[in-house]
Amino acid sequence: MTTAPEAIVGEYKWGFYDPEEALFKANKGLSREIVNIISDMKGEPQWMREFRLRALEIFWQKQDPPWGSPQLKEIDFDDIHYYVKATDRDERSWDDVPEYIRRTFDRLGIPEAERKYLAGVGAQYDSEVVYHNIREDLEKQGVIFLGTDQALKEHEDIFKEYFGTVVPPADNRYAALNSAVWSGGSFIYVPKGVKVEIPLQAYFRINTQNMGQFERTLIIADEGSQVHYVEGCTAPIYRSDSLHSAVVEIIVKRGARVRYTTIQNWSNNVYNLVTKRAVAYQDAVMEWVDGNLGSKLTMKYPSVYLMEPGAHGEILSLAFAGKGQHQDAGGKIVHAASNTTSTIISKSLSKDGGRTSYRGLLKVYDGCENVKSTVRCDALLLDEESRSDTYPTMEIDAPDVHIQHEAYVSKLGEDQLFYLMSRGLSEEAAAKMIVNGFVEPIVKELPMEYAVELNRLIELQMEGAVG
Amino acid sequence: MTALLEIRDLRASIGEKEILKGLNLAINAGEIHAIMGPNGSGKSTLANVLMGNPAYEVTGGDILFKGESILEMSPDERARKGLFLAFQYPVPIPGVTLVNFLRQAVNAVRGEEVPIREFREKLFSKMELLKVDQDFARRYVNDGFSGGEKKRAEMLQMAVLEPAMAILDETDSGLDIDALRTVAEAVNKLMNPNMGLLLITHYQRLLNHIRPQFVHVLVDGRIARSGGPELAEYLEARGYDEFLAELARA
C-alpha cells in the first residue's frame, strides 16, 4: 500500500509518486534468502553470489562508525525493502519503457535533457535500471555506458577485474550492505585516448515507500581518456524513511581525466549513506563535484587516492541543510606518491536549524616528496538556529609537503544585506544574491544547464529564509 | 517649493548612545551640500540613518524625501524612491559580479525588468563616462578592490541607478590625489539640476574638486554652523580644534 505523501518541505517539487506497480517487491528485511533471490533473479555468475553473501556477513559484523551521526541508529534495517523491480528490462528507447515510469522521467525532464545536451543517459527506478542509451558515435569508438547489471552480463571480464577493488566490502558498514544487495547503477568504460566531451548522465529515482536503493557504479577511464559523468536523484516524500546507499568506484588510468558531478536532491525522508572513491594513476586527474541539497541525513566523503606521480585530485563539495536536515559531507585525499597535488573546496549553507558538517581527511604517506594540497572550507549560517561544524583530519607522514588549510564560518552579514538593500534589492533578493555568490566557486564548475538547475534549487531552498 | 530632502530635528542612537541630537537640514534639487565635522561628530551615523541602516535607531524627528516621511521605509524602499548612499566602506560580495549586481539593482529600482540590451548600453556608456575598464564589470563586487576601485565602483552604481538624491559618505577617504580627482570628476559629470547631492567629509580637499553651494559643520550631533564654500576653507585653515574652541567661547 502506498501512503499519501506528506509534504515535509513545501517547495520540494519532486515529491510526487507513482502507484506501486512493481513486478517484484522483496519482503521487508535482510537475510541470506533475500540476497539469493536478488542473485537468482539477475541470473548472476556464482562468483557474484558468493561476493554478495560474504559482504552480508561483513555487514552483520560491522558497526556504524563511532563518529557518525546519532541519527544512524534510527535506521530500522528490518523495515526496508531491499529489492524492488519495476520492469524486466533496461531499454534503449524511451518508447519501450513502461508508460508510468516514462511519465515520471518526463516530469523530471530527463529525456529532454538527453536530446539537448547529453551524450548518454541512464535512468534507474527503484532497484533496476530502466533505460540506458549512449550516442552512436561514442559507442562506435568503444565507449561502454550500461546499467551495471547488464555490464556484468556483457563484459564480465573487465567487470570482474575492477569490481570491488576500489571500495572493498569491508571498507565500511554501508559499503558492505551495498555489496550484499547492490542493484543497478552505471558502468562506464572509456577506451584509451577517447575523449567524451559531452556529459553522460544517470538519474536515480526512488518510488517505493520504505525502499532501499543500492546502486553500484563503476567507471574505468583508460589511458589518456576523458569523461564527465553527472548523476541526479529525487524521491517522493513519504512519512517513513528510505535508505540510499550507493558505492561508486572509479579507476583513472595514466593521463586520463574523470569528472564526477552529483546533484543530490533526495526528499527529506531519505538516508543517503554513500561511499565514493577514485584511484588516480600517473598524471591522471580526478575531480568530484558533489552537491548535496536533499536527504534527511547524508554521510558522504568522495575520495581520491593519488597512486602515482603527477596525479591530481580535486573535490568541490557543496552542502545545503534546511530544516531537519544534516549534511555530513566533505572529502578525502590520499597522497600515496610523490609529485601529487590536490584541492578540496567545501562550501556549506545551513538554515532553519539545519546542520552541515565538513569532514575531511588529508593523508600523505611516508616517502612522498613534493606534495601540494589546498583545503578550504567555508560555512555560511543563515540564521541563529542553524549549525555548522568542521572536522578536518590530517595525517602527514612526509616532510616535503606544502599544505594550505583555511576554514571560515560566517553568518549572513547584516552589512552585506544593508549594502545590497541600499541598492534597491529586497531583503530576500539580497540574501539570495549573497548565497549565490557564496556558492559561485562550485556552481561555475558545472555545465551551464546544471548551474542553472542548482541555482534554482538553492533559490527554492532560500524561499522565506529571511524577514 | 518643498525641499527634495528635509531632515527635521533628527535624533538617532546606536545601542544606548545618542549620536544625532536634533539635526536640521534641507536640500533642494540642483543643490550640493557638504557636511563637515570632526571624528565622532555623527557624520557616518547621519549617512546610515538616512539610508535606513537597521543597526541605528531613530529616536526622534523626521526625514522627508520628496515630501514624504521615509522613516518607516526599509533601505530598499528608500533606494527605489531615489535615494542613494555611496558607502565609506563598500562591502565585498564575493562571487557576485558587478554587472549582475547592477542589473538586479537597476531592475529593482525601476520596478521592471530592463531589457538586457538597454541595460548593457547604459552600463557601457556610464563606464566610458567614468573611465572604467570593461573588465571591471566582470569582477566580484568590491572583492579585492583597491580603495580607489571601491569608490569608483560606488560612482558607477550611482551613475547607473540615477538617484534623485545621493549621499557620499567620506568618498575621499583612502584615495590618493589622482584617484580623488577621477572620482570627483565622475561626480561632477553625474550631478544635474534635478538631483540633490550631500557630501559628507572630514577634509576640505574633496570640496576643491566638487564645489558645494552650502557647507555645514556638524558638531556633537547637531549642525553647529552653516555657510557657503568659504566656511570649508575657514575650517581647513583653522582646524577643528580651534573651531571647536571658538564655538565654546561663543
UniProtKB/TrEMBL annotation, chain A:
Protein name: Fe-S cluster assembly protein SufB
InterPro entries in UniProt: Fe-S_cluster_assembly_SufBD (IPR055346), SUF_FeS_clus_asmbl_SufB (IPR010231), SUF_FeS_clus_asmbl_SufBD_core (IPR000825), SUF_FeS_clus_asmbl_SufBD_sf (IPR037284), SufBD_N (IPR045595)
A Pfam family: SUFBD_core
Organism: Tepidiforma flava
SUPFAM superfamilies named in the record: Stabilizer of iron transporter SufD
Gene, per the UniProt record: sufB
Domain SUF system FeS cluster assembly SufBD N-terminal: 139-201
Domain SUF system FeS cluster assembly SufBD core: start-end pairs: 204-438
Family recorded in the similarity comment: Belongs to the iron-sulfur cluster assembly SufBD family.
Residue ranges of coiled coil: none
From TrEMBL, chain B:
Keyword Transmembrane helix: no
The keyword Repeat belongs to this UniProt entry's keyword annotation: no
Alphabetical keyword list: ATP-binding, Nucleotide-binding
Domain ABC transporter: 5-245
Gene3D superfamilies referenced in this protein's UniProt entry, alphabetically: P-loop containing nucleotide triphosphate hydrolases
PANTHER family: ABC TRANSPORTER I FAMILY MEMBER 6, CHLOROPLASTIC
NCBIfam families: sufC
Family, similarity comment: Belongs to the ABC transporter superfamily. Ycf16 family.
Protein name: Fe-S cluster assembly ATPase SufC
Organism, as annotated: Tepidiforma flava
Lineage, broadest ranks: Bacteria, Bacillati, Chloroflexota, Tepidiformia, Tepidiformales
